[in-house]
Design brief:
The structure is a single chain. The chain is α+β, with helices and mostly antiparallel strands. It has four domains: about 15-140 and about 405-520, GroEL-like equatorial domain (GROEL, domain 1); about 145-210 and about 365-400, 2-Layer Sandwich (GROEL, domain 2); about 215-365, GroEL, CATH 3.50.7; about 530-565, no CATH class. It is built from 18 helices and 21 strands. It has helices at about 5, 15-35, 60-65, 70-90, 90-110, 115-135, 145-160, 165-185, 260-280, 295-305, 315-325, 380-400, 410-425, 430-440, 445-450, 455-465, 500-520, 550-555; strands spanning about 10-15, 45-50, 55, 140, 195-205, 210, 215, 230-240, 285-290, 305-310, 340-350, 355-360, 370-375, 405, 480, 485-490, 495-500, 520-525, 530-535, 540, 565. The strands form seven sheets. Strands 7-12-11-8-9-10 form a six-stranded mixed beta sheet. A three-stranded antiparallel beta sheet has the order 4-14-17. Helix 7 crosses helix 12 (about 380-400). The longest helix is centred in the middle third of the chain and has 24 residues, at about 260-280. The two termini are about 30 Å apart.
Length: about 575
Amino acid sequence: MAYMELLDNDTHRIKGGQIRQFNILAAKMLKEMIGSTFGPLGKEKIYIDIIGEATFTKDGATFLRKIDVGHPGAKVLIDASNTVDNEVGDGTTSVVIIAGMLLEKAEGLLKNNIAPAIIINGYDIGLKLSLELLHNISRKECNNDFKIIEKLAMTCLGTKIISYNNKTEIKKIVDITVNAIKAIYNYDNNNIDIDDIKIEEKIGHMLDSQLINGTVIDKTIDNRSMPKFMEHAKILLIDEDLELQRTKSDVEITINNPKQMQLYIDEENTIIKHKIQNIIDCGANVVISRKGIDLRSQDYLSKAGIMSIRRVKENDLMWLEKATGGKITKELASHDLKKNLGYAGKVHEKIVGDDKMVFVEECKSPKSVTILLRANSKMVLDEYHRAILSTIILIKNFISKPSVVIGGGACEALIAHFLRKKALEYSGREQIVLMKFAEALEEIPLAIAKNSGMDVTDTLIHLKTKLSQKTCDSSTKWFGINILNKNIDELGWEIIEPTILKEQVLNTAIEVSRLLINIDDVIIKKPLMDTHTHEDGTEHSHQGGSIKHDHYFDKLGKQQRTHHHYY
């Protein structure tokens, strides 16, 4: 117990196999917690936070971001899952399942006296072989083939949205998402900018969702006397006030007689009229401003037949700039405003649900589009929003590396099958580790089967039987889970996933497993809530520090504080 002399009494140490056991247990608990959400027929979860706000989701990353965990091993796994979500948009639950199974298999290996270094080395070999096999079985595609992009969107959205069995609704979402990507696709450099797609939410029916080749603004037209519908709109985007401005510092104006008051008012009117006359002269018939437009300015604009919308969010103004081809004007005193005009087929006000919104649509070659998303509740709207955003990120990554593999657990099952064959080439304990590595990968198709109501044991037997005679080349047959027929089928290139997604999942899962297996020592300082200070300046932590207690120095006649200060 020599370390007790080195560390303070308020410090606790856990080392060796015990800490590995805790890490493995934490990973297994996370896997069990979100494993039921995996696949098209995965279950949904509801998280209710401290203020009573509910989050409804079957997205593993969303759920893991919400929950509070104290175990450092669990936090590492959650951070890894979030990283995958941020990088490739999907695969978060897969990371937790594979990493959890790798650690579970490592637990059995450790009990059989296989050293952590051997396990880690075996997992590294398994990762290297898996990536090589993945590249051999993947198929190269054209990154602007929208038939492939539509299949990718269908696969991704099918595992995330709750209306998977409603083919009409899922087809609607897929079409909207793919058409939005097609509208902003940059063919010059084969890239898309995720921020060019605006997602606006309103309560309603899912089938009323639509894609607008332009922008939807959650605002109303400023004045009833203004036009409510404008065809062939010439739009001026401004970032300047059309109202009286307050000075940034306290300024006092002294007026000695009524004539000076009138002169002051007239000068204000002259400034506003000059700005509005410049707007009229440039030919604009729609004005959209980030700042204020007072009643006097609205009156001038309406008399000129100009529609105006004020107090628009800065992001909306930027989306309008990309959609209409206009430029944001910050100085209306200029006489050369015509070059800043943007154009749209029509601008009109429309009632959506219980609110009025302004639609700027039918833009020619818009660089920004809007998805108006409808659903029957805010929770479902948020879930659809997250699913569409994840799909857009996924497709962006596919465009950067246009290569795909078959989904439905077929890819992991195929890699696991060939890893078993490769394992026989190793004579050391790494052979056993590689076999366990393959078993961990098989958890992906088994999780899909379990959530689809299939028998896990029968599924595994049938899957291995189907793969037993296959070779790893371009003519390889892919066998995975058919959730419709509830059996093992040969899958075609309809349910596909990007190769880059599989790479990210495998790399992250192995990295997390390696880290948690390699930890053999944890030193824990007592919680700050038990730290307290006495009148003589003694500060320390110990169990029971939050309640009244005596110390040895009390017996020596030193007065203890009447109360403690806890930090």
